[in-house]
Amino acid sequence: MAVRKDRKACFDRAYIPVRVIPSHIDESFYFAKDPIDTIRKIAQAKANHVRKIWINNYSKKEGDAIIIAADTMGYYDDKLLGKPQDEEDAF
Hints:
Layout: H1 2-13, H2 35-57, H3 59-62, E1 74-76, E2 79-82, H4 87-90
Antiparallel strand pairs: 1-2
């Protein structure tokens, strides 16, 4: 989960408070021929899932929120390689 921590650290350095809410979606469902489209669909699905979590668990107490979702995907030689498991795998 180093990527999630690194993304949060970017907000921390800018003094922007964030709450990390993991989305547990089945990413295999969103694979498309175009890697950019695949990543976009996965990020949108994550954002929608977290939106539902926010509405059901946090919105009454904390109000509205801005949801930022992202995805990491390896792509090489016209092939989607999937999400790197660790730094060595990413290399």
